[in-house]
Structure formats: structure tokens, C-alpha cells
Design a protein that fits this description.
Largest sheet of chain A: none
Number of helices of chain B: 7
Strand order of the largest sheet of chain B: 6-7-8-3-9-10
Structural class of chain B: alpha/beta
Radius of gyration of chain A: 23 Å
CATH topology of chain B: Rossmann fold
Order of helices and strands of chain B: EEEHEEEHHHEHEHEEH
CATH architecture of chain A: Orthogonal Bundle
Oligomer: heterodimer
CATH topology of chain A: MetI-like fold
CATH class of chain B: Alpha Beta
Helix content of chain B: 25-40%
Number of helices of chain A: 10
Radius of gyration of chain B: 19 Å
Strand content of chain B: 15-25%
CATH superfamily of chain A: MetI-like
CATH architecture of chain B: 3-Layer(aba) Sandwich
CATH class of chain A: Mainly Alpha
Distance between the termini of chain B: 37 Å
Number of strands of chain A: 0
């Protein structure tokens, strides 16, 4: 088999092996299904509840994407600010660290007091969980620009905006896309937590109701749906990353020119 | 009539800016330098003597703590706006192909930056022509990492010159190259400069390079840096590699060497 085919199949095979180990483990130790269901039971539940799961899945997805979109815009702007101005860095960074150390699950009840039960706290939770990696990564991209490069531009009469547009942003794109892959998965975490604590729809809400009915196979079905959505979104952003930052991944099918002179 | 004038300059790093005298490292002390228009000079000296700092002073990237710097009769108070620079390490942008890298200054320097899009074909041609003069005729579409070190430095020279600056500042541009490539690039640089003159300040620790390329070689003392000697280079241009092995060339290199640390160059 060609190595490219192997690479394509590898993640599927790994997943299949994990599910098999899970299935066999549950069967071998005779674990009750209300403690830990087998993957087959969970997948059966996905099939049985496919319409409500689809509907709630879509709700979770749209909430997540809304929070994620705000996080990307906000994180990008804050990252550029923190990365390109020394004063912004020293004044904002400790605040950001402090803020990101706060357990977000603990804030959700407060958000409910402010905005009521429903989608708004979930969007905010998705945003709060995912903006930090975007800020840090974009700021790192900006802050690690080679000083010589900035000198070259400065003595051409470049403005701050020139340096941000011509150097800062393209240079931080690889960092930015790397952060998107982390941020999108964290967004799902934020949404589902908020839905569990204070939702009236979404996958988190399904899980809450299912677990209060001791329908543990449905809980796992919902978890599988969330992780499938996470993996799909991750894949989309990984593809965008290769599309926009191919320059940072050198030597794919292009022979290097090592001739002297 | 000097074009660039550095007059009795002190420069301190790490201390408070302004008129303090006690803190920080003294990088330059009582430094004087005067460069004529379209002159090609070299600054040589031991490492850490503030050679690169001199370049930053001239371009206005750092300000002197004492004394003044003038370019074209005017005090340098903020970064100059039309200077070409090249460094030892390639500072080509890895996300742009070679041609777009060379075109970067034209996106920034006035009046080019405000020119309409219809000019872009002419600009591309200009970049390609310049690349051709340094032997990179077919490399405009390559990405920087596909080029060897020497080729990257050629492209960097093109980027430093595309906007026809009046001053070219070179900070050990060939320092990371092997000896043969380096000597090849001396000829390339001399050729570029003879086609279109500008004031060049070359910082280097390679004395043969300094004498081969320059009109005047200035020797800077160990820190705090100060210009301690200068030698005019009388040889006619274009200079050839053969000339670098002639007795009078070797003699001049030897004299410069002697200024750097007297006694050890016997």
C-alpha cells in the first residue's frame, strides 16, 4: 500500500481499534449498560434518536460557531494589539492570564443571572473558552518578528500599519491557524458545559436529560456526536491552514535548490 | 563636502535615554565619521565594537546620547525614509516569492506606493531586470527557501536597491557565505554599484572584502567604538579577484589588520 493511503486510513483504523477495545472491555468485565454502555449501544442510540440528535446537534454547532467567530475576531484584534505594542503587552498580559485561569464553568451561573437561560450564555461560554489561545498565538507571531526585518521596513519610511499588514499578519498566520484548531474544540467544550448547566436545547441539554433518566447509552451517543462535530471542524480548519500557510511547510514535492552562488 | 556626517557621537545602550551619563553600556564614544556622496566605505573592527550601531545611527534607528548625525546637511532625528539595508541573515519574507520580496520597498516608499495598479507590470519588469543583473533571471517565481544562501543574498541586495536609495547600509551581508560564493558576490555588488552609484556603508570583519569593494576603509576600536584609522583604497575599478593577490593590495590589507590589534599582525 502507498504511504499516502496508509496515512489517510490511519486515523480511521485507530478509532476503530479504540472502539473495539471499549466494546470488548465492557463485554469481558460484564459492565452494566447504565454504568458504561458499549459503543454499539451508543451508536444504536444515535440511530434511534437521529432526528432529535440532529436538531440539537445543529443548535450546539451554531452556538459554538457563533462564540467561536466572536473569539476569532476579538482574539485577532487583541493579539495584534498585544503583540505589536509593548505597553499593551505589559498592561494586558497579566490580566489575560488571570482571566483565562478563571474556571469558565463557574462563570456560567453568573451569565445566566445576567442573560437568562438559553443560547446567550452558551455563546459567551464558547467565546470565553476559545479566545485566549487565539490571542496568545497571534501575539506570539507578532512579537517574534525578526527585528532586522522591522529595521528594513522602518528605514523605507513604513508606517505601523504597513508593518502590521506586510509583516505582522502574514507572519502570524501559521500561529493563527494553529490556534483556530485549538479554539474550535474549546468552543465545543464551552457550549456543551453551558448547555448542561443552563441550556434549554443543544447536545448538552440532551445529555443532562438523558443522564437524569439513567439513559447512559444516550449520554454516550451525545458525546460521540459532539466529538464527531469537533473532529469535522478541526479538519476544516486544518485544511484552511494548509491552504493559506503552505509557505511555512517547506519541501512538499518541491525540490530544494542547493546549487551554490 | 560630506553627505553623511557623524560628529563627536556618544551612544549608550541599556541606560535611560537622554542626558544621563552613568548607566548602560557605552557602545560608541567620541565617534567621528564623514562620508562623501556616492562614496563606498567599509567599517571594520573587532566584534562587538559597535559597527552595526553606526549603521543604526546613520539610518536614524537609534539616537546619539551626545553629538549629532547629519545626512545631506540635515540632522537625523527620526528614521530616514529611503534607505536600502541588507543583513548577514536572509531577511526575505518566506511567504513571498523572490520577485514579490524584491518589490516590497516599492509598496512602501513614496512615490511608488501611491502609484496606480496599472504600474504593477512595469514594476514587475523592473524587479525581473534587477534580478537578471545579479544572475537570478529565472528565479522570480521561486520561494526564498528554494534558493541557496548566496542566491538569497543576491535577492536581498536587489530588494535593498530596487527603490534606488541614496544610501545603502550593509551589515556583514556576505558573512554567512562560503569563501567562493562570497568572492563572487563582491563582484556582483561592485557591478551593481558601478551601474548606479549611491552612498554605501559596508560593515564587515573581512578585510579583503573591505579593500576590494571600498573607496575608504575605516577601522573602529574595541568597545567603546571609535574610528581610529582610515585608509584610502587607490586601486582603479572595476577591481578583479586577481588584484586581491597583488603585493600592494595585500600590503593595504595588512596595514588595516595592524590597526585592529597592533602587534598581532606580524
Amino acid at each position: 500500500m502507498k504511504s499516502a493511503t496508509v496515512e489517510k486510513l490511519a486515523p480511521w483504523v485507530t478509532t476503530l481499534i479504540l472502539l473495539t477495545v471499549w466494546q470488548l472491555g465492557v463485554m469481558a468485565f460484564h459492565i452494566e449498560s447504565f454504568v458504561l454502555p458499549t459503543p454499539i449501544e451508543a451508536i444504536q442510540q444515535i440511530y434511534i434518536n437521529r432526528y432529535p440528535l440532529f436538531q440539537h446537534g445543529m443548535a450546539t454547532l451554531s452556538t459554538t460557531l457563533a462564540g467561536f467567530a466572536i473569539a476569532v475576531v476579538f482574539g485577532l484584534m487583541l493579539g495584534i494589539l498585544v503583540g505589536s505594542f509593548r505597553l499593551a503587552y505589559v498592561s494586558l498580559y497579566p490580566v489575560l492570564i488571570g482571566f483565562s485561569s478563571v474556571p469558565k464553568a463557574a462563570i456560567i451561573p453568573v451569565l445566566v443571572i445576567w442573560f437568562g437561560v438559553g443560547t446567550v450564555p452558551a455563546v459567551i461560554a464558547a467565546f470565553l473558552l476559545s479566545f485566549f489561545p487565539v490571542v496568545v498565538n497571534v501575539a506570539t507571531g507578532f512579537a517574534t518578528v525578526e527585528p532586522e526585518l522591522l529595521d528594513v521596513l522602518r528605514v523605507l519610511g513604513a508606517t505601523r500599519l504597513d508593518m502590521i499588514m506586510k509583516i505582522g499578519i502574514p507572519r502570524s498566520l501559521p500561529y493563527f491557524f494553529a490556534s483556530l484548531k485549538i479554539a474550535i474544540t474549546l468552543s465545543f467544550v464551552g457550549t456543551v458545559i453551558a448547555e448542561i448547566i443552563a441550556g434549554n436545547n443543544g447536545i448538552g441539554n440532551v445529555m443532562l436529560i438523558a443522564s437524569s433518566n439513567f439513559n447512559v447509552p444516550l449520554v454516550f451517543a451525545a458525546l460521540l456526536v459532539v466529538s464527531a462535530m469537533g473532529v469535522s471542524m478541526y479538519t476544516i480548519f486544518a485544511m484552511l491552514e494548509t491552504r493559506f500557510t503552505s509557505w511555512s511547510v517547506r519541501g512538499r514535492g518541491l525540490e530544494e535548490f542547493a546549487a551554490g552562488g | 563636502m560630506s553627505y553623511i556626517e557623524i560628529n563627536d557621537v556618544d551612544l549608550r545602550y541599556g541606560g535611560q535615554s537622554g542626558a544621563d551619563n552613568g548607566t548602560g553600556t557605552l557602545a560608541l564614544a567620541n565617534t567621528n565619521l564623514s562620508v562623501g556622496r556616492d562614496e563606498f566605505i567599509a567599517i571594520v573592527g573587532p566584534s562587538g565594537c559597535g559597527k552595526s550601531t553606526l549603521l543604526k545611527l546613520i539610518s536614524g534607528l537609534v539616537k546619539p546620547n551626545r553629538g549629532f548625525v547629519r545626512v545631506g546637511g540635515e540632522d537625523v532625528k527620526k528614521p530616514l525614509k529611503n534607505v536600502g539595508m541588507a543583513f548577514q541573515n536572509s531577511t526575505l519574507l518566506p511567504w513571498r516569492n523572490v520577485r514579490d520580496n524584491v518589490l516590497l520597498p516599492l509598496e512602501i516608499v513614496k512615490p511608488y506606493r501611491n502609484q496606480p495598479r496599472s504600474e504593477s507590470a512595469a514594476k514587475r519588469k523592473r524587479a525581473d531586470d534587477l534580478l537578471a543583473t545579479v544572475g537570478l533571471a529565472d528565479f522570480g517565481d521561486r520561494m526564498p527557501w528554494q534558493l541557496s544562501g548566496g542566491m538569497q543574498q543576491r535577492a536581498q541586495l536587489c530588494r535593498a536597491l530596487i527603490h534606488e536609495p541614496s544610501i545603502l547600509l550593509l551589515d556583514e551581508p556576505f558573512g554567512a557565505l562560503d569563501a567562493f560564493t562570497r568572492e563572487e558576490l563582491w563582484a556582483v555588488l561592485q557591478d551593481l554599484w558601478m551601474r548606479r552609484k549611491c552612498t554605501v556603508i559596508l560593515v564587515t570583519h573581512e578585510l579583503r572584502e573591505a579593500v576590494y569593494l571600498c573607496d575608504t576603509v575605516y577601522v573602529v576600536s574595541p568597545r567603546p567604538g571609535r574610528v581610529i584609522a582610515s585608509s584610502k583604497v587607490p586601486f582603479p575599478r572595476p577591481r578583479t579577484l586577481d588584484m586581491t593577490y597583488q603585493p600592494d593590495f595585500v600590503e593595504l590589507v595588512h596595514t588595516c589588520r595592524h590597526h585592529i590589534n597592533p602587534g598581532s599582525a606580524q
